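Re: that chain you flagged

S.,

Sorry for the slow reply, it's been a week of failed gels. I finally had a moment to sit down with the sequence you sent. For the record, here it is as I used it:
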Amino acid sequence: MAKTAQEKLDAKAEKEYYKKHKRAYKLTPGDIVFNILNYTFFIVFTLCCLFPFYYLFINTISSNDLVQKGLINFVPRGINFDNYISLLKADEVGQAFLISFGRTLLGTALMVAASAFVGYVVTKQEMWHRKFWYRFLVITMYFNAGTIPWFLNMSMLGLTNNFMAYIIPGIVAPYNIILVKTYIESIPGELEESAFIDGAGYWKIFREIILPLCKPILATIAIFGAVGHWNSFTDSLILMQGAPELHTLQHKLYTYLNTSSNLSALMNPGASASALEGMMQSALNAKVIKYTISMVSIIPILMVYPFMQRYFEKGIMLGAVKG
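Prediction finished late last night. Pasting the structure tokens below so you have them in one place:
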């Protein structure tokens, strides 16, 4: 959108103001030392956070023999993408990727829609027993029945070995509803009042006024929901024992981790040389597959987050203004 003449004048005045005060303010030796230490700390901290991802990546594109010998630490050697190509050809991994992608997309969309609608409804004073229902919703954040009652409940509802077990339990998220409710309460009430005067109903106001204004907080809870769905594997591990075709990508990674550990445990001194060689090769394959699947499972979140970051920062700050 093109800037108006007034906006251009304001931007020019702001730039001149900062330029003037920048010349007037001189850094003291203490300020310089502080800035150096501050920048150094955050650069080192950033590198420490990024290095595990970099280490995973260079080990997946390097020669498998060098990875086995532990020679890949900082620079990739023998660069190839055979591990990724082989992974894409594996039916069970491809199916697991689709399951994780499907549950993340559908589960996040339904959770955001439900959080937006319920968060809007509980802001209405005329809602029947509003305080009771809101407190009833909040109290579920503090009490949990435990794994066994949860599993029995899911079994009685027919949600074992069923894809909908990934979707239905996460649609209503109390914490996200609270964030949306708080954000909506920060929107000036005059907007709704003027819409009511013009004859708009609750649904039209929600769809055409509230939802567009709630983009920052909705993007924030979308990130929460997407990361949670993508990284979840305990529900797959417990509920999908009889349906391996419904295992998530994280569940497959967990399986490969266990396989690698079991193979290492089997390597006892009494085994023959040929058996040990075969076990070592299997363990190597499991290790490389583990690295590759880990990288594949991280990439989607790393690709999505930068586009959502500006909404995330704005939404989480504005959603925390009022309690």
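What I noticed first: The chain has two domains: 16-80, 88-318.

Talk soon,
D.
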